[in-house]
Amino acid sequence: MRELLSWQDKTSWRPDFEQLVEEHQSMVFSLAWRMTGDRGLAEELAQDVLLELDRNLRKLSSAEHARFWLRQVTLHRVADALRRRRTNAASLGADLWEELEERHVLVEPFGLEDESPLGRRIEELLATLPEGQRAALVLRYQEDLTPEEIAVTLKSPLATVKSQLQRGLKLLRLRASQSLKEYVRGA
Amino acid sequence: MEHNDVGNEKEMAEFERKLRIAMQHRAAPVGMKQRVMARARERRQVRHGRGWMLQRIAASALLAAVFGGVAVYHQVQERAEERRKGEEAREQVMTAFRITQKTLDRVQERLDDDSRVKFQIYNR
């Protein structure tokens, strides 16, 4: 926790926007993709977040602060996008939306040929989890954050984060075992 | 029972390991950085354009204020000058009145003296 807050002491940081984009674009994009389960939307959100970084560059005081800020803003943007999507789904009719979403997921490129089945379908599997559990899992296993760091990033109590991690992991494992068996059978 | 728990823990640890590998960062879409940089440049240009426009408006307002101020100053100065001249003229008129008053007083004195002399001669 102390490490997370130590950026406030650093004042001599001279950020270069292009370098920051180069360094963090894949992190922001992966976070958005795994949270939304939609590659196109993830790219759109990632671009918006990086542009917001450009606008807020002066407020950031270190590389760690920038990374923390990017994770937090990406998660906020994702939450807004998911809320909008839920509203749209309600107005269009949930069935139609689900159908569109399924079609969209089917045409997603799942990654490299040599990836494991779990790696190829991870975005799809994560999309089936509740939002809070998904966020905790992505921050834990993609960003390698500790539960304490996740609690600070999500502004949630530590106990809630730990419970979300535990439940999310169990649920994901269950979904993965069901889904990947089907995947093998289908193949 | 214990054996099952240990087995579950091992499986979970193995799943976590696989999950960590599966959740490596995905490469960003090709050209995303260029698109972001282009949009950032565009935004900066718009902001710069807006800044330039604001500067022009501010400069125009400043010039208008300066010219307005100078005009008002001149007007005030003119009025003060007119008032000063008016005061001067009034002062001159008052001086003229005072001189006339004194002259008339002298004339009156002489007339009084004359009539006194005539009265004394008449009485003799």
Strand content of chain A: under 5%
Mean pLDDT of chain A comes to 82
Q: What count of structural domains of chain B?
A: 1
Secondary-structure class of chain A: mainly alpha
Low-pLDDT runs of 5+ residues of chain A are 103-111, 183-187
The number of distinct helices of chain A, counting runs of at least 4 residues, comes to: 9
Looking at the overall shape, the CATH architecture of the largest domain in chain A is Orthogonal Bundle
Query: Helical content of chain A, roughly?
Result: over 70%
Largest sheet of chain B: none
What string, H for helix and E for strand, traces the elements of chain A in order?
A: HHHHHHHHH
Largest sheet of chain A: none
Computed over alpha carbons, the radius of gyration of chain B is 52 Å
Q: How many strand units of chain A? A: 0
Can you write the helix and strand succession of chain B as a string? Answer: HH
Please state the average pLDDT score of chain B: 90
Structure commentary:
The complex is a heterodimer of chains A (187) and B (124). With 187 residues, chain A is mainly α. Chain A has two domains: 11-108, Rna Polymerase Sigma Factor, Chain: A; 114-187, Arc Repressor Mutant, subunit A (Orthogonal Bundle), CATH 1.10.10.10. Helix content of chain A is 76%, strand content 0%. The radius of gyration of chain A is 18 Å and the shape is globular. The model of chain A is unreliable at 103-111 and 183-187 (pLDDT under 50). Chain B is mainly alpha-helical and 124 residues long. Helices cover 91% and strands 0% of the residues of chain B. The radius of gyration of chain B is 52 Å and the shape is rod-shaped. The A-B interface holds A 17-18, 21-22, 25-30, 33-34, 39, 43, 46-47, 50-51, 54, 111, 115-116, 118-119, 122, 137-138, 141-142, 144, 169, 172-173, 176 and B 12, 15-16, 18-29, 32-33, 35-37, 39-40, 43.
